[in-house]
Each structure stands twice: as structure tokens, then as C-alpha cells.
Write a structure and sequence with these properties.
By secondary structure, this protein is α/β, with parallel strands linked by helices. It folds into four domains: 123 residues, Rossmann fold (3-Layer(aba) Sandwich); 165 residues, 3-Layer(aba) Sandwich (Rossmann fold); 82 residues, Orthogonal Bundle (Helicase, Ruva Protein, domain 3), CATH 1.10.8; 70 residues, no CATH class. 45% of the residues lie in helices and 13% in strands. The strands form five sheets. A five-stranded parallel β-sheet has the order 2-1-3-6-7, with helices on both faces. Helix 14 packs across helix 16. About 4% of the residues have low confidence.
């Protein structure tokens, strides 16, 4: 009998969902908030979690890292009072089974529960989660755990994999990890840097050539497709492939046969294909710059790597482990960290992702020499300047208003126009009260609909959430 855990702060919803679950043969547990849910999950044994997002002690998505960290994590179905497309995207990328919006029909909820329970049972029968050799890949955030699940799935098959992500997010490292955990691990992992290939040499590089087939071809040479026989061919920056080669590659993927430049006969190669790009291939297809039929062949499995700014929970772990490695490489004593060091790191948005972080950390280690502690002073000036400016950015905080004027909760809970009648407050106090009044009215006008709030206010999503948190207000999502 499958066990489900209903996490919702409304007793009526919990009772209704439990009644539905029991009618379908499930054993049910209940939790009214994140704290109670964590305690129930620690006991283990749940197959499906039906999870609300708006809970008294936080956002339901905060529970995902705990769930993914379990030895045998249950499937998660989000059931929320008011969702939004971006929230659904984040949840699904974080590994949830389904995303439902109240009032979802009983039929829809039942179908989702049944399918999730059936999927879990089939996965358990097939051996469940594979133990992966992750090597240098580090991370425990929900986004990374979802990636690990996809790596396990990809490693168990020979399907083509497309790895997408921003520059520096670790696309080649993940490709190697899939190869290392696959049945082809003992065979070659062959890297092709498509961005460095010229139009005239790309076919020769991939498929090889015969002596005399072109000027400079003084001997027969095997192409990388042949070298990858039995192993994995990794096409890095596959979006840079010229159009003519895209057509040739498509036929190779279909037939597993190729013809070296200047040859009259085709040859066979049994390879597994993994591709990577930081470009939007679907947009390139729309623009006519990439073949749609090739894209379908490349992304039987699509692994999207999250940028570092979406996995802030991993920043400290990555930094600590990398600094330990760097100290060993440079023959330096182990180093500790001051709080201001991580304050500067977390203030940066890391457009270069993990690659940029590791470069910054190496610069800090070198700058610190044999000192035992890393301080913000050891970090590059541009990062420190950016962190310092953020403290005075009127968009993000109006100087240090909360420190000098008190937090929003310390100020009188009256409309800002009334404070002008009863006595003139400081300008900073008035700004905080006006900001809170605006947000309260915004919530009221939109009924907490995040998409509508963003449209009316003109704020970015991150800025809106920061302001709501600052004033202890809550949207409906």
C-alpha cells in the first residue's frame, strides 16, 4: 500500500485529500507546516507528498532540498492556491512530479496521485536510484539533485543527451560524468570543440580523410567519430556546427555510418552522442540556423544545468572544497573563512558561474599567501565594490534605512499620510511606511496574484519577493 503525506495548513484540505487517498487505497499522513512535514519525512516510508506552497513557516518549495536529500525520496505533487508559470517551471526543474492549482478537480488530483504512486513502484522494482560516481561535481540544492536524477537516467541508457547551460556551468563535466557512469565507461570519451572547427576542416575532423583528398592530406587519418567507436562522442558547443555538417551528422546519427573525406566506402562506428551548448537551439531552429530534425536527434534526454545564482545553497560548499584543493595544489596551510568573505561572494550574481567562482577563489588564495584566514579583503576589488554599492542602492534598500529608522515591524502601523498629520517622521521612516502601504494595496488589488503584481508594479520578481519579505507580507503563491 502506497503512503502519501498531505502538507497543507488548511485542515479541511488535509481531511479531503486524506479521504480521497484512502478511497484509492493509500495510507495517509498529514502535516500543517514545514516543521511538521520534516519530522514526518524523517521517519521515512512515504511514496508521494502532496505539497502546498504557502505555509505558515515558509514556502513549500523549501522542503524540496530535504526531500531530495532522503535515501529514498518520495515523488512530490504541488497543490497550491495560486500558482504562476515561473513558479511551475522552478518546481518542475526542482524535480516535482506535477504542479496543480486549486481548485483542481478530484479527477485531476486522483490521476496525478495514481500515476506518481505507480511510477514510484515501477522505479523501485527496477532498482530505484542508481549510486553515481559524481567525481568533482558538488551540490545538494534541489536544482542539482534534480540534475543528478537525470544523470542517473541518462547513464543507464545509450540515448543521445543534450546538456544546456550558461558558460561556466559545467557542461563538459556533466557529460564526462554520464560517460563515467555508463556501460561505455572503459571506452574513449572523445571531445569535439565545434566552436574551434573551420568550415573546411570540420568534416575531416569528424569523419577523417583519405590521402590526397585535399591539399595537405598527405596520409590517411581517422576522424573523431571513428576514435569514439565503443565510447562517447561529445560535441561541445554543438550550436556552432555549420549547416552542411549538420546534415551530414544527422545521417551519421540515423545510420551509425559515415564516409571519410575522399573515401568511396562507408564505415561504421558504434558511439554514444552527448552534445552541449550555451545557445538556444530552439530559437536557432526558428531562425533557420539549426536543423529541427537534428535537434530532435540530439535531445532524447535534455539536461539543463542551473546557473550558480539559482543554487545559492551550494555556494559555500563549492567554495570550501575548492579552497581546500587550492591550498593543497599551492602547498599552503589550510584556510578558514571570515563571515565577510561569504557576504561578498553571496552578493555577486556569478555570470561566469562555477568557472568564475573557482577563478575568484584561486585569486583569493594566492593573495592571502600563508595567512590562515580568508577575508573579503583577499577578494578581487570589483566584487567588493559591487557588494559595497549594493548596500547603498536606493532600488534595493534606500541606504541602510532599516538600521537607522528601525525595521518595518518597529514602525507605527498607520498609513504614511496619517503620520504627516500627527507629526513629521524622518524621511526614511516615511519611505518605509509608504513602501509597506503600497505593497499592502498591491496585494489587495491583485489578490496576491504574483504575475499581476509584477505587471502593475514594474518590479522584477526577485525585487518583489525581497520587498514582501522585508515587510513580512505574503503573496498567494
Amino acid at each position: 500500500m502506497a503512503r502519501i503525506l498531505i502538507v497543507d495548513d488548511e485542515p479541511e484540505v488535509r481531511d479531503t485529500m486524506c479521504s480521497l487517498g484512502r478511497r484509492r487505497g493509500f495510507e495517509c499522513g498529514q502535516a500543517a507546516d514545514l516543521s511538521e512535514a520534516r519530522a514526518k519525512l524523517d521517519g521515512g516510508g512515504f511514496d508521494v507528498v502532496l505539497l502546498d506552497l504557502r505555509l505558515p513557516d515558509g514556502n513549500g518549495l523549501d522542503l524540496m532540498s530535504d526531500i531530495k536529500g532522503l535515501d529514498d525520496p518520495p515523488e512530490v505533487i504541488i497543490l497550491t492556491g495560486r500558482g504562476d508559470p515561473d513558479g511551475a517551471e522552478l518546481a518542475i526543474q526542482g524535480g516535482v512530479w506535477d504542479y496543480l492549482v486549486k481548485p483542481a478537480s478530484i479527477k485531476q488530483i486522483s490521476l496525478s496521485l495514481d500515476r506518481a504512486a505507480r511510477y514510484r513502484e515501477e522505479k523501485r522494482r527496477s532498482g530505484g536510484r542508481r549510486a553515481l560516481e559524481l567525481g568533482r561535481i558538488k551540490g545538494s540544492s534541489p536544482a542539482m539533485r534534480a540534475c543528478f536524477d537525470q544523470v542517473a537516467t541518462a547513464s543507464a541508457s545509450d540515448a543521445a543527451v543534450l546538456v544546456t547551460g550558461e558558460t561556466g556551468s559545467g557542461k563538459e563535466l556533466f557529460a564526462r560524468t554520464i560517460h563515467t557512469n555508463s556501460a561505455r565507461a572503459a571506452k574513449p570519451f572523445v571531445v569535439v570543440d565545434c566552436a574551434s572547427l573551420t568550415d573546411t576542416l570540420v568534416e575531416s575532423t569528424l569523419f577523417g580523410h583519405r590521402k590526397g583528398s585535399f591539399t595537405g592530406a598527405t596520409e590517411d587519418r581517422k576522424g573523431l567519430v571513428a576514435v569514439a567507436h565503443g565510447g562517447t562522442l561529445f560535441l561541445d558547443e554543438v550550436g556552432e556546427l555549420p549547416g552542411g555538417v549538420q546534415k551530414s551528422l544527422l545521417r551519421v546519427l540515423q545510420e551509425k555510418r559515415y564516409r571519410p573525406v575522399g573515401a568511396t566506402k562507408e564505415e561504421a562506428s558504434d558511439f554514444r552522442l552527448i552534445s552541449a551548448t550555451n545557445r538556444d537551439l530552439e530559437l536557432m531552429v526558428e531562425e533557420g540556423a539549426f536543423r529541427s530534425d537534428l535537434l530532435f536527434r540530439l535531445k532524447t534526454v535534455h539536461l539543463r544545468l542551473p546557473p550558480l545564482r539559482e543554487r545559492g545553497e551550494d555556494l559555500k560548499t563549492l567554495a570550501v572544497e575548492r579552497v581546500d584543493e587550492l591550498c593543497g595544489e599551492h602547498g599552503l596551510p589550510a584556510k578558514g573563512f571570515s563571515a565577510d568573505f561569504f557576504e561578498v561572494l553571496t552578493a555577486h550574481d556569478w555570470p561566469g558561474n562555477v568557472r568564475e567562482l573557482f577563478n575568484v577563489l584561486e585569486r583569493a588564495v594566492v593573495a592571502s599567501g600563508r595567512e590562515r584566514t580568508l577575508y573579503a579583503m583577499h577578494l578581487p576589488p570589483d566584487l567588493r565594490i559591487k557588494a559595497a554599492k549594493a548596500r547603498f542602492d536606493p532600488v534595493d534598500g534606500e541606504d541602510t534605512a532599516e538600521e537607522s529608522a528601525g525595521s518595518p515591524g518597529d514602525l507605527p502601523g498607520i498609513p504614511p499620510e496619517d503620520t504627516l498629520k500627527s507629526g513629521l517622521p524622518s524621511l526614511k521612516q516615511h519611505k518605509i511606511l509608504a513602501e509597506r502601504a503600497y505593497l499592502s494595496r498591491l496585494l489587495e488589488e491583485t489578490d496576491g496574484d504574483v504575475a499581476r503584481m509584477l505587471e502593475l508594479s514594474g518590479l522584477s520578481r526577485s525585487h518583489l519577493y525581497a520587498l514582501l519579505k522585508k515587510h513580512d507580507l505574503h503573496s498567494a503563491s
